[in-house]
Batch of 2 targets.
Target 1
Amino acid sequence: MRKKSALMGGIAALALAAPAFAEGEITIALNEELEVVEPCMASQSNIGRVILQNISETLTELDPTNGQLKPRLAESWSEVDADTWSFKLRPGVTFSDGTTLDGADIKHSMERAVSEALTCEIGAKFFGGMKITVDVKDDTTVEITSDPAQPILPLLMSTLTIVPAETPMEFVRSPVGTGPYVLAEWNAGQNIILTARDGYWGDAPQVTKATYVFRSDDAVRAAMVGAGEADIVPLINQNDATDAATDFSYPNSETTYLRVDNTIAPLNDIRIRKAMNLAIDRDAFLGTLIPADAIKAVAMVVPSTLGSNPDLTPWPFDPDQARALVAEAKADGVPVDTEVEMVCRIGNFPNVVEVCEALQQMFADVGLNVKLNMMEVAEWIQVYSKPFAEDRGPRMVMAMHDNNRGDPVFSMFFKYACEGLQSGLCDADLDKMIAEATAATGDARAEAWKPVFKRAHEDLVADVFLFHMVGFSRVSEKLDFVPTIATNSELQLSQIKFK
Amino acid sequence: MADIAPVTPAEKGRLRSVLAMLWADKPAFVAAIFLCVVLVCALIGPALLDAVATKQNLRGRNAPPFDLSKGWLLILGGDALGRPLLARIIVAAQNTIAIAAGAVVASMIVGSALGLVAGYSRGRWAQIIPRLADVIMSFPSLLLAVIVLYMLEPSAANIILVLAITRIPVYLRTTRAEVLEVRERMFVQAARVMGASDARIVFRHILPVVLPTLLTIATLDFAFVMLAESSLSFLGIGIQAPEVTWGLMVAQGRPYLTSAWWLSFWPGLAIILTTLSLNLLSNWLRVALDPQQRWRLEMGGRKNG
Amino acid sequence: MRKFLTRRAVASAVSLLVLIVMVFFLSRLTGDPTQLYLPVDASLEARENFRNLHGLNDPLIVQFGRYVGDLLTLDFGDSIRKSRPALDVVIEAFKWTLTLALITMVLVSFAAIVFGALAAFNVGGVFDRIATFFSLIGASAPDFWIAIVAIVLFSVNLGWLPTSGTGTLWHWILPIAVLFIRPFGLILQVVRGSMITALSSPYVKTARAKGVRPRPVIFVHALRNGMLPVITVIGDQAAGMLNGAVVVESIFGFPGVGKLMIDSILQRDFAVVLAAIMVTAFAIFLMNILIDIAYAVLDPRIRY
């Protein structure tokens, strides 16, 4: 024992004192390490929180407060014709390598994002199934054409990170961007350090140096703010969010639902799908397993999204009616006793196991035979996304869908069209409505989406919606920063102020 | 012991002397009683309490322990779905003990058998078997778990398979190490000279010397296996809800460690107490079985009896 | 000795080869990584493109041939996730784990042998009871409990140590302390058991009866005889630490190879899985050779 304390003393003498935090420096604790620091992968939330608008900027930017687009690297934009939009670039913008932003950079960034040699996530996620060409008119004007026509092309441009035209067609390890910060250090496994740079076109930010560290354990991450080791933890577990002074909840644009395979008995009977919706006591979840600030969902996208339908109401909790519907279906020969598999994904969101166990119990209470199957992500994704197995039984898949872009087009085709990769149904009318809404422009667009939501939720009862979720962040009391819906995908250091 | 129906006087006497020796070692005696309780829970728990253990109450979740006002079942508190922890621990005993015992016994038998061959033989097997252990040791248990459970169902039997395979090397290598030394001892050499068969030498002379160490490792392996099963569940590869084991309960309580400690504490305590009891009992057993040490218990027994 | 070493080196190389073949083919049975890498909405063409880009469409045997061919030029392939050479990623992480395991195992071996031997010297005594009790609790308690409670106590409440991370020597104390506990309990029990057997064996009794003094002579003599299983168990624990200090690494944010391996397995980043297994296997094989040499040194009767 004496030996040990002597050893401890030795270590203590050798150890360096923890560095005191200087003014303008903050530490941010993320939940997992960044695999790459590549601008064209910035749509992944952890990469986005480091890169997006800090290192790499976009032409346009979605304002989380009102859902409107605001200028960033483009000063203005206008529609040339149905296929083509013209963007006027902000003059005098320089990259951190000293070169000046011009049209060629936009062209290269676009080509890079969709290049087959890179498989960038931004390309695959936002520009799949379309062909985009960038035409450089002069140094500060580009015309972007899409085939088929994209009425929301300016919105799509809020996802595309701009890199210099010299960037190679492979993943970079030291990204160059137009943003207020540069990557100063990347110590793999330990931290990533961004520092403010001179020559940024906008206002100089208050935060001069940001250190990102990675802790996968929820409890540890949350404890770091109290221990003075971190200033912002963008993601803490709801069970740890107990301190009103530092813990903020924010809508994270995620929607949880059960995707129901509408093609297989007994789930192909609308009465069974109605009964499932009626069987769930959604209010019992709120404030218990699901945070109290979550909202009962009626659609795949959060209410702040364009075209949300305010006339839709969540299904009530009515087990008696649910039992009656099941009995009615049974009388008509629907095989209601068939075991229905409910697939949930481990670690999908906090308390997912408990939520699924509770759902199973609620289904059982109204006479539905549901078997819970918890899966690891690689297995889960095989049943969530097409191609589905030919010999599958009746199945529901719990999923959480994220649409933070403000337009339903990023959700509805994939989740509801016959060809949609995660669609559990095929309805010709719905397909037509989705196609119309996708092509609609201006005010007509919002109006075109509303009936799509109604068709899915009320007419077809396509799936079982649960909640629009919230996330929790912990922010040190010395900072003036309130998380928003955007915090799920980015963390703009320039918006962080000191008290 | 209980199922020996016709008890002859001699057996009765032996049973009594075993009990007396157990009584002489008070901690071991308590441990034996605790293990009997666990066994009873494992045998009849699910039949008795399954309905209670799965009854959810979302609005009464994470009920704190030691509150008798909601009934004795909630004395240890409720879990994240309001289910009584006491009932769940009792029900979970069956799966837990079956998996842990299955994995430990299987790996011990296979591992020590291979170890005996590897240590005793001087031929090709002495070279090949230890290398096999090297390969298994270097094969990450998690990868094995993913492979087995991705292709088969995550059932109790498959979990046993995964855990047993990963634990084979430790028995194999320990047995081999001891055999390497024991086979050079005088009495083994003497037995060989007197013409005893290899099987007789191995089972009558070598195995008894090696066994105590194996038992020590095996009892602690019980805890290891239960916790390994817990981390597999945590990563999404082991036993999954709605099935229940102590390990799964510990894993599920993890997010609540700082807010509702009892969720993972009680099942964890069950694991600790079971391990502790097994170890105390195995320590007692090794003394009771060793003719050179038995006097400790017999003297103690007389003193107390 | 040289003959033994040559034979072992050859045998270990063959084992490594067997291991590579097994891991390569078995790991591919766990599914196609494509959908894990691409966003869930990625089109079927994008998936096909990804598979072609990473050679996932070729028959397994062709993929294996390519892998072995690259291996001969010391190219361990690239991590798809990190788009960097897999070996670089693994070596970076392995350095941390090796240091952690080495320090911990030295401390554990020393402490467990001393405490275990002392416990064995007076079986059933107060010291024996206390040592057994606490070592068993430590060995059977879930490690994340100990880690989280230690962080809450020493970092949050007392503010003595950093919660997690790397950087200063202070950062090493909690991970080592937590990692220490389980092997300490197990090794202590094995030492204690071996020592009891050794101390009650006829020759030690004779020595005692003859009044051989000082006591340490008996002690050391008995220890030496009971050492074989102890070394084996120490080796087993060290191997476990080399490829699986996962809980400690992930809780304390230590960038070690255990966490890397788990992440890579779950994400089906096969090149990293293979490289990590090869590096840890190399270390484990080396350690096992050293252990076999140690047997022969401790007990001159043992020959291979």
Target 2
Amino acid sequence: MIFLNFLISGISLGSIYAIIALGYTMVYGIAKMLNFAHGDVIMVGAYVCFYAVSRYGLNPFAGVALAMLVCTVLGMVVERLAYKPLRQAPSLAVLITAIGMSYFLQNTALLLWSSNPKVFPSIIGRGAFKLFDGRLSVSHVTVLTIASCVVIMAVLSLFIGKTRLGKAMRACSEDKGAAQLMGINVNATISLTFAIGSGLAAIAGALLCSAYPTLMPTTGALPGIKAFTAAVFGGIGSIPGAFLGGIMLGVIEIFAKAYISSQLSDAVVFAVLIIVLLVKPAGLLGRMTQEKV
Amino acid sequence: MSKKIFVCAVMVLAMAASAFGASFKIGATGPLTGGAAIYGMAAMRGAQIAVDEINAMGGIQFELRYEDDTHDAEKAVNAYNALKDWGMQVSMGSVTSKPCEATAAENFADRIFALTPSASSAAVTEGKDNVFQMCFVDPNQGTASAQYIGEKGLAKKVAVIWKNDDVYSKGVYDTFAENAGKFGLEIVSTTTFADGNDTDFSVQLTDAQNKGAELVFLPMYYQPASLILAQAQAMGYAPKWFGIDGMDGILTMEGFDKSLAEGVMLLTPFNADAKDDRTVKFVAEYQKRHGEVPNQFAADGYDCVYAYCQALTQAKADPSEDAESLCPKMIEQFTTMVFNGLTGENVRWSANGEVTKDPKGMVIRNGAYVGLD
Amino acid sequence: MTMRRLINLKRVEARRIYLTYAVVIVAYAVCQVMSSTKFLSSSMRGMLVPICAYMVMAVSLNLVVGVLGELSLGHAGFMSVGAFSGVAAAIIMQKTITYAPLRLAVAMIIAAIFAAIAGFLIGIPVLRLKGDYLAIVTLAFGEIIKSVLNNFYLGMDSGGLHFSMLTDTTRLLKGGRLIIRGPMGISGIQKIATFPAGFILLMISLMIVFNLVNSRSGRAFMAIRDDRIAAESIGLDITKYKMMAFVMSAALAGAAGALFAMNYSTIVANKFDFNTSILILVFVVLGGQGNMLGSIIAAAALTILPEKLRQFSEYRMLLYAVILIVTMLATNNAEIKEFLGRLNPFRRKEEAE
């Protein structure tokens, strides 16, 4: 029973990593860039939601919707100002700009919202489903997070697989030059990718802070790195991979704490990651790209 | 708007004071940005209130300058050097332990006296005759906690959750573990967390619960502690909770469900709900300026400035003296004087820079501190 | 670098190398003079050693990122290994080598050896991967090093050295000293790092890197970077060359770590985290991949910048972020690049050649 409880804790934590990783992997898949500011967009989303709900008494779901709106706009503005001018630049330059953007968002948040941690009101309360006479409990937030992940995954897969815009995205991800020649507006497609990714970040922010309710300007940074790891773990660019990678990472982290050592859990998590990448160099569900000679 | 006017007024006052050239320059470093900014900002704001109060009285005048060290030893030394260039005469060290260890070594080498508000590790003062602490030193907190729990018979079986990459947490944990046996406590569960895995505490709490811990000792700051309390409640685990001074502030978090902290005990030198005049006045002023209830760091910062005020007055020091000539005078004053502040009555310092004051045992009842005993 | 080889180089390349050395030497001389005449502020004086350490870090990372073309996100891990092993060595040798500069030199060599070993061990799995996967594995190793050092205890007493993991079980005899104390790191370090030592380390690093880059191996590195498959098809042993660059880079980072750590009275493993790795990567990218002089200048500029922004108090780090973004945008803007290129007489000659 303890084992099952730990498994559930792992899945709860993992589902949070997964939902952040979805945003990472989507942007990477299409725009081929590691958007290190993603974690900080999550933080902004959580703050917007916090103020909407706690200060202005909005319905939590309206709060999330507002946060999505703000983050989508923020994502598009960031993309327009900081990433778009670097479309032709080496990928490292974009990486550094993203890191600069991450610092920028964190420090703006610090000035706007102060360093005092805020306790986030859970968007669906702190209740839990009790199973086996209460010996096993699964919190509502976990269920909601996993459900959101699955829904987002399905919608994203359908969107990318079936719609015209999705097709354009895939084309851009395969070959930007060729896509352009086929009459696809590459810039607009990438902007759209960022808009969707940032909208997802708002949902991730609300769920992250519902599960682990303290909110600070640095809240997004470390989960962001963990989620990035999860995305790579599952095969970066792959949407189901991000989900699987996130869940696995959460479960491994909790099991490492429980059965190996709480002191070395981070080392264990990263060691497992390295081993997996050595066996499957493109992550769990990643595609190995064939190199052309 | 009123805030702006106020800031202007303060600036005018500060400029006026410096124009006369008759003020003592107090320099300090602390994390004003980054993850630890909350502690640095609090200490700075508390100290600034004290400076403004003292300057308004018209006697001894102070000029306070805080530089950002982002909770990093390297940046703290940079900040310290910038303060030296500014002409710092006495120092308030750094707010957090590791940066303060680094700046304390500089203080010692440069013969600039330092009184840190809150850097509590033993290594801060070790081997340095001119570095003093306003807060309890970590090992003392560990021992005092074990003693308190043991002597009051709060529990026999104890679990500890500590932060494995934090000097403060480790310092308290070490002496707690060392002395627990002496006071009849049995540590049945010891688990840790660190930056990056400080969100989920189910494993730590399950371990404590399964090993039958009646009390969980939390040597950490209040932010992770608030998560632990929430998760313990969610899993239906209700042991006694015992925290140290870093726990102070938990009630002031915006949106915190105070019922979670019901019955939490902590050893803290400061209580924002205290009814004495000075505390009431300080808390009101802090709230007016910053819209928040001050925590222990703010009170420590405030006390440091008043301690300096007392020491400099008693030493009949003159603002024209340089840091090196003030240093021996301050050492003499601090090792002999008795100070009354927000964080303690009859505060004394030993020659090695450690403070002696009574830790106040507090318990949280109905969302407010109540004195234990 | 032997004279003959330098003569054999293309003139442009040789000139670039000379220019790098010249800039470093002149900058050192100017700083020394200003420092000894008290013309330099305490703030600047205090940054001389860390700037040297960061310059060496940038140069060494540039070997991997710029010359070899592989993204590493865990370079601070090697700095950490070097810092801890170097400082521990210096403390152990405190009684045996009383002459501080010699102790510093020996400590830096030991640090370089330990970091090189770490680089070799990490290189075995890492170099089988490529691209972003390689990057994430280096990040993972950086985190593992941090996590392990946070749980590592090393003590010394009359019975010799004792170490333990997770908890302190060294059980030192009376008079012993616990050197590395897990999360509390090392305290009470003697500050023996000096600016001249930093300068010498930087010069040695430059010599090693230039020598490597302009040798047979260096040409192999660049062939691998520019077209791995073509390089492989002409029979280059890719893993060997990659490993060589990786280990060399780790060793230099280790020495820099020891220099850095011995400039402060205390260090903790958390200092050398992902953010520090990123900071060094920023130096390399901003200075130009493969451009050692650029790395050096970027390291100095970005270390001094936040200090010079102190007057803006709470807006300091915000401004830093804005400047970073704007600089990246500007240096990658084709028009601005061309404009700068026209201003630079050095480059025009290069093109004419």
